[in-house]
Design goal:
The structure is a single chain. The protein is an alpha/beta fold. It has two domains: 177 residues, Rossmann fold (3-Layer(aba) Sandwich); 216 residues, Rossmann fold (3-Layer(aba) Sandwich). The strands form five sheets. Strands 12-11-8-13-16-17-18-19 form an eight-stranded mixed β-sheet, sandwiched between helices. Strands 2-1-3-4-5 form a five-stranded parallel β-sheet, sandwiched between helices. A two-stranded antiparallel sheet has the order 6-7. The longest helix is centred in the last third of the chain and has 30 residues. Bound molecules: flavin mononucleotide. Flavin mononucleotide binds next to helix 5.
Length: 410
């Protein structure tokens, strides 16, 4: 179950006797390396306890009441999940979810979720064969919903027929087919994000408009492809991403130290942080007093962290960012060569167009040694997914080249 490893999976449990099997299922998902959040319908809590699933999933179990504690919980969960699984899925929940109704936390998350939902129906044969259930089965969106089972057999009520929930092994197998392949399984990726702050004195600093959104989106995309990801971040107003190790830094010197200390343990380095090129030569330990005259502050050139990281680790697949206001492609290609890196993501820093720093949107050029790929304006999350797909493709080709070079030199 390699492609389940590191995936964010929401498991919905509904009110069926088969709910007890969900404990085994969640345990198997955890063993396969998935990150599981369980949502239980109100009626399912009388079949299996929240506490059982909480201890097995290693996460707080969510029921309807949690929605009133946290306003946008349904949207957060829908964004967090890579895939959703409802096992067991009662006739009631099946009819609701496949027809787009949303009157509890689980069905609302299903409606807000953009990915695929795997349903494992569990119900009495007469309920499964009911024409309304069958009508919903035949009419449901095939791109949205996948079905596993139900199996034929003897039911707890004594009836025999189709309606038994599939075994946890079968459900896991189906889920594995539904989940996108983990192309970066086993690949270690270090990401830097956000701005740096270069102190002028104890109360002032030089910084830039970087929000960290692009870097955080890249870290999350890499993780969803199965990579082991670590993030080094300057000061941002973003929530720490789930299940990604995060180190906070403030200055470019701290960024340098943290990156160089770690990068030798990584296969890929995505330098998305907007690191200040210059820093005050002498940062004052006392606040600069305001006087009538001008204040002259001398800035010194900081180190090129990405260039240094690549120099010290030649096998590292290194990606930089280049925010430009003019001649974007030309300037970015010059940087790619000067830093001797493998890929550069160039974008226009343009507040009027709502692009680059601070914005939720971006429009970029993905430039590697051979090609330039233009990615039109879209959300940073969508751009991050495209960049990660390109990195995956190039990184794998690179590995093949390295292997072939080794073979021919032996
Ligand atoms: C003992 C018992 C077992 C039940 N088993 C099932 C079942 O396997 N499948 C089903 O569709 N409904 C079953 N039900 C009925 C559901 O629990 C009921 O329709 C409930 O409203 C489902 O709510 P939910 O879909 O929000 O969890 C059962 C009810 C009881 C009392």
């Amino acid at each position: 179950m390699k492609n389940i490893h590191n995936k964010n999976i929401v498991v919905g449990i509904t009110g069926s006797i088969a709910a007890y099997k969900a404990a085994d299922l969640v345990s198997k998902l955890k063993k396969a390396g998935a990150i599981v959040k369980v949502i239980m319908t109100k009626s399912s809590t009388s079949f299996i306890t929240e506490r059982t699933l909480e201890s097995i999933s290693d996460n707080k179990v969510l029921v309807d009441e949690n929605e009133s504690e946290q306003s946008f919980l349904h949207l957060e969960l829908a964004k967090w999940a890579d895939v959703m699984l409802i096992a067991p899925c009662t006739a009631n929940s099946f009819n609701k979810i496949t027809t787009g109704l949303s009157d509890d936390l689980l069905s609302t998350v299903c409606l807000a979720f953009k990915g695929t939902i795997l349903l494992a129906p569990a119900m009495n044969p007469d309920m499964w064969n009911n024409e309304l259930v069958q009508k919903n089965l035949n009419n449901m969106s095939e791109s949205k919903f996948k079905i596993v089972g139900p199996d034929y057999g003897l039911h707890a009520c004594g009836d025999e027929g189709y309606g038994r929930m599939s075994s946890p092994e079968q459900i896991l197998e189906s889920l594995s087919n539904v989940v996108k392949k983990n192309d970066l399984d086993g690949v270690k990726i270090l990401v830097s994000a956000g701005p740096t702050r270069e102190p002028l004195d104890p109360v002032r600093f030089i910084s830039n408009y970087s929000s960290g959104k692009m870097g955080y989106a890249l870290a999350e995309s890499a993780k969803s492809l199965g990579a082991d990801v670590e993030l080094i971040s300057g000061p941002v107003r973003l929530s720490p991403p789930d299940n990604i190790k995060l180190t906070n830094i403030e200055t470019s010197s701290e960024m340098l130290q943290q990156v160089l200390q770690r990068v030798c343990n990584y296969d890929v380095f995505i330098s998305a942080a907007a690191i200040s090129d210059y820093r005050p030569l002498n940062s004052s330990s006392k606040k600069h007093k305001s006087t009538d005259g001008d204040l002259l502050i001398r800035l010194e050139r900081g180190e090129d962290i990405l260039k240094l990281a690549k120099e010290k680790n030649p096998s590292l697949y290194a990606i930089g960012f280049s925010a430009e206001t003019d001649n974007i492609s030309t300037h970015a290609r010059i940087k790619l060569k000067r830093k001797n890196i493998d890929m550069i993501i160039a974008n226009e820093a343009n507040h009027q167009k709502g692009l680059g720093f601070e914005s939720d949107m971006n429009e970029v050029l993905i430039i590697d040694k051979e090609n330039t790929l233009k990615i039109p304006k879209q959300t940073k999350k969508a751009v991050a997914d495209i960049i990660l797909n390109k990195i995956t493709e190039n990184y794998k080709q690179n590995l093949i080249k390295i292997k072939n070079a080794r073979k021919s030199s032996n």
